[in-house]
Amino acid sequence: MRPAFIVLLLLAAASLRAAEVEFTRVWPAWREAGSFDRISEYFGGRENTGGHTLLRTHAEARAGYYFLVRLKQTPASLAGAKFVVNIISPAAPEPKAYEFPVTATSSGVFDLGLTGSDWSDRKTHPVAWKLELRAADGRTLASAQSFLWAMPAP
Questions:
Q1: pTM greater than 0.85 (yes/no)
Q2: Are the C-beta atoms of 100 and 83 separated by less than 8 Å?
Q3: How many domains does the chain divide into?
Q4: Residue 47: pLDDT band with limits 50, 70, 90
């Protein structure tokens, strides 16, 4: 009876460790450049992120298609991690991947932006998308996807 209890305890600990990082919500949407303006930016000169970590494909461009990601995680679990956003656009049937290195944050809220030439048209929406958070060793820590990403091939 004792070995079975130890096995159950180890399995429970492993499942808790696997759930250490998870997406609580992913909101994909177009955002205008003006939606990032804050009054404090006019006084301080720096962009006020509102407690979010902003990661953009083109740092100088603010307008674009964003994935607002909320994480439930422990800060140490994200060392060396990266977000990978795979997009199928109306222009091309093959997915295109964008990588965003995770920077230190205490809020667990990230704005991942496809900006500039990567997504310049507000009327264009992705056909399908998949978002992954990968550890430094390549393991997938968390993932989310659109309904159409999961559709089986004909």
A1: no
A2: yes
A3: 1
A4: low
